[in-house]
Structures are given as C-alpha cells and as structure tokens.
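User: Fold this, then the next.

Assistant: Folding the first:
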Amino acid sequence: MFVRLRRLVFAMFVFSLVAWAADDPLLGTWKLSLGKSKWNPPPGPQRQTAKYERFAEDGVFVTFEGVNAEGHDTFTQYAGTYDGREYPVPSSRTGVTLRLKRLDASTTERTDYKAGKPLITSRRVVSKDGKTLTVTQTGTSENGQRVNTRSYTQLMEEDSFSRVRAGARVPITTGQGMQYMDVGVRLDCKLAEREGSLQMELTLEITSFAREEAQANPLLRNIGSEVRTAVLPGKPTVVTSIDDTASKRRYELEVTATKIK
C-alpha cells in the first residue's frame, strides 16, 4: 500500500457581474465574492475587482484592483490575445510571461511561464446565465511554492494492523527531568478485503512545533484524522483532507492499495 501525504496549492475565485458586454461573456467588470471563494494556502484578498476589456481582434485587457490579506492596495494589469503566444507579465520582476487560450465560448485559460516552464494555470468559466465567473488556479507560483509530497509504503496482510512513524524524538526538559516527545507523522492502518474492494481503517496524526526556535516549554501543533473507507485496488484515492488554520496549509491523504499475489 502506498500512502501519499501532500500539500496542495490552488485557489478558486468566484466573481459576480457588475457590468457586462453582450458579445463576449467574459468582458465586463466582476466583483470577487469572498464567501464563495477558496484559497490554499489562505488567506485570500479582502477585496478584489476584475475588469476584462476587449484587446485587438481576439484578445483581452485585464485590470485587477483590490486589497490583499495584509490590508495593502493592489493593482495589476496585463494584455494578450488568444493566439498561444507569450506576453509579458508587467508585475513580474523575474521575466514571467503568460499565454492565453480560448477553450469554448464561456471558458478561457491563462498559463504563466518562467524560462519556458509552466507555473500557474487559471481557468475562467462564465456561467450559462452570464452572472457568475469562476476562476480556478492550479500549479506552482512564481516564488516556487508547490505541492509538497511525502510517500510511505506498507506491506500488509489481510486483517492485519501496521504502523508508520516518521519524525524524531525530541528531548524536553521538565520539572521531572528529561523527557522525550514524538514529533512528526504517525500513520496507523488496518486492511481487509470485502466484495472486491479493500476496507481501510486509517488514523493519521501530524505533530510539529508551533515555533521553529528552541524553547524550554515548546508549543506543539497537532492535526489528525480517523477514516474508515473502501478503496479500489490500484486506484489512487484521497481519503481525507485537513485544513491547518494555524500554518495556513491543507493536507490530503491519498492512498493507493496494490494487491500482491
């Protein structure tokens, strides 16, 4: 059984229409709906407005205005056509470029590139009634933030129980002397085959220090999940997803169970 723990980087923005153009559903001014949007890692902006205007014969001129999570005003612009060519990103100081693609009448994509390698793809979809714009971003940001994946492998027999421990035992000084504290990943699993599927019982616990610097009485951060579910052999399955509000990360536990004859 292969178990993958990963941190995802994605964002989903939902905008509501303020003003619009009749011939292209994307063109117009859109206001960010904070309550319907998601960011990973959070937090997202406090406010944002996106204005899409016609550029050349088949292109778009985009202006973003708003206030970021720290309360600072933001303003960015770019322009390009849906011809697959690379256009500069004015706000980038490291040579990031973008390409625009029209997938259908209501769906377009922007992909950012650096040194010829793709970074983030933003897919923009306008609803059938033309009142909602959903922008979904996936990929790697310009500063290198990306999916962080760790893999653990367990060889198990049916109806058996196994454990994975990854981390360290850290010495802590207490009033009773020196004690040791386990910090890292604890993964317990029980497996059984039932009617063509594999029944799993999983317990995941991740423990880390809330602060990087050493302390006499350290503060620990702990997140965990207990799952009982069925998975199909050979098919990667995300069995749990956890938002850590303190570290602004999301953890997913993905399981691939392979039957060995």
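Now the next one, as you asked:
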Amino acid sequence: MTKSNVDLTSLFMVLSFTINIFIGFLDPTEIPVSKEVGVVFLICGGLIFVYVLLYLRSGFFGETEPKLDFLVTKGPYRFCRHPLYLSFIIMILGIDLMFKSVIGVAFTLALSIPSVVYRARIEDALLRKKFGEEWENYADRVGFLFPGCRGGGKMISEEISKREIYAIGLLIVLGSEFLLRDVFLPEKAGNIHIGMAIIVEWLTLVMLLVFWIPKVEGNKLGSVGFGKFRWRYLWMGVLVYFILLIVWAGSGFALKAIGLEGLRSLQPMIREYSFPILFGLFLTGTFLEEIFYRGYTIERLTSLLGRRWLAGIISWAAFTFVHLKFFGLGPTLDVGVLSAGLVFLYLRERSIWPCIIVHGINDVIGFIIGPLLM
C-alpha cells in the first residue's frame, strides 16, 4: 500500500463527512423525529470517541498506517476492532437527525458509512501485516465493527467480518431506499422531489458497483447476478411478462371487488411528470431496482441467512411495500405480483438479466408508451 493511497482513503472519509454536514444543514426536508434523538446519538458517539482516545492517544494522529509499536486491545478495543470509526458513524447520524435531514441520512448510508468501512478494511490489512499472529488472535476474539460478533478461529473470524460487511451493505441499500421513497417523497411528489430521489439512488448504485462490492466486500459483480447474458433470457422475459399480464387481469377483478384500483389507475398521475423524469423512472425501475432488490438483496441475505427462499421472501416484501406510499394500496398489490414474478425468475436463473427484461417491458409501457398514447 503506497502512501498516496492511504492519503486518499483518509481524504475521502473526511470529505464525505464534511459534505454530509453541509447537506444536513441545507436540506429543507425533515424526518418526523425529535431533534433530541440526534442529540443523544451525537453525545453517545462523542463519549465513545473520547473513550477511544484515552487508549489510542498518540496513535490517533497520523494516517491509516499503524503508528504505535503495540496492538491496542484494551478499553473499547475489547468490544470491536474499530470503535473509533463506530463513533464517527454514530456522531454523523446524530448530526443528520439533529437537522432532521432525510437526504443527510441517505448520504450517510450511501457514502459516509462506506468510506468508514473501506478505511477500516484497509487498516485491518495493515495491522495484520505489522502484528501478524498477535492480530490474528485478536481478530478471532473481537468483531470488526459491531460488539458481540466474535470468531472462533481465523477462517471463522474472517467469515464473521464478511457477514458484518454484508449486513452494512444491506442497510445502505434498503435503508436509503426506505428513506428516499417513504420519508423524503411527499404524497404528491413533484418533478423536483422525484428528480432528487433518482439522483441520490443512482449515486448509491454507482457507489455500490464501483466501490462497495469490489473494494470493500472484495467480490466481483457476478456475485450480484451479473453473469453472462444468454439469448434465452429474451424469450424467457417476454414469456414471464405475458404470464404476469394474465395474473394482473385476474387480480384486477379482485381489486375492483374490494373497491381498489390497480396499476392502470396511476396513469393520470404519471402523465403529469416531465419526460426526463419519466425516462429516469424507467431506467431506475429497469436497472437500479433489479440490482438493489434482486441481485444484491437476495444474494447477500442468502449469505447471511443460509436460505435462498427466505431471502426471496424478504426481497419480495421489501420491493413491494417500498412502493406503498407513492402508489397507494391497490397498485402496490399489483406491484406484489410483479415482485413475485421477478423473485421467482431470479431464484431460478441466478441472473438479473431476465429480470431486467421483464421489468423493462413493464416500465417502458408504464412510463414511456402509456403517457404518450394517453
């Protein structure tokens, strides 16, 4: 690891924190939470920070490269290997909550936390190199970032650290989606609100694909369903979409019987948006949602839970109900049908390509062709 690389990780973390604070201060939207909650987070993070400094002392100053000639394993380092970075996360969340900033919390999930975790991963590698077996024994006993995640041997401790990273990744993806769609967007969202949400979502996606998966997790994009494209995915996607149309026809009668409307009822609202927003929604649904909810969520939950069917159910529920506020109950039930088809297709093929085809057909009709014809 060269010195310039270490400087870049430090600069990236400080820069992300600084931008995070400015966003929280300028963001006009508000989370429905008391500012006192943010104050509690900030104080708790500050106390952990001071507790760490009492043991780290001069080792705090400098770069990622270990400065001390001994490994600190006492005090807060008995509970996790990176309590300093944990305190940073708690404090920055506290600032976001004090400002009641939705975009600030989303930015924390999308950039600030990944920058902290990445620096911690680099620090682990440097500590392993400098202290060798002493660090290995320490890592066997103490979790990466969260207290209580302990190992029982080198391979087990590394696996637990990986599981922590996966859990943080899921928090970033699903947490940012919930905040943007169910908290940030008002009930009658305009072009500006939806445009801002789309931009943050795509920034999160770029971070996930370019930084988080390859750099922090150490995985390839194939681990989230980016396998080789096969031509049979085309006819498979078209076939599944026609099956969904038949199911929607039946569900439409059921919804009307209980006084609800399906996805078609959204067309008058959709027509009010500008074409750039509609095109952004088409791209977001077709590509981003498939990577987030099928590829990443199902694969990482499978690694954590060990049951692919359970990961599929959670993915189905997360994708379905994140639409509830914006779509309403009836259309959301229709989304549940689409979600079930997409989950089934992903579990069968372990690839996001056929899911992208199905979702793309649905969204090009809903967001592009439908508004133009009407």
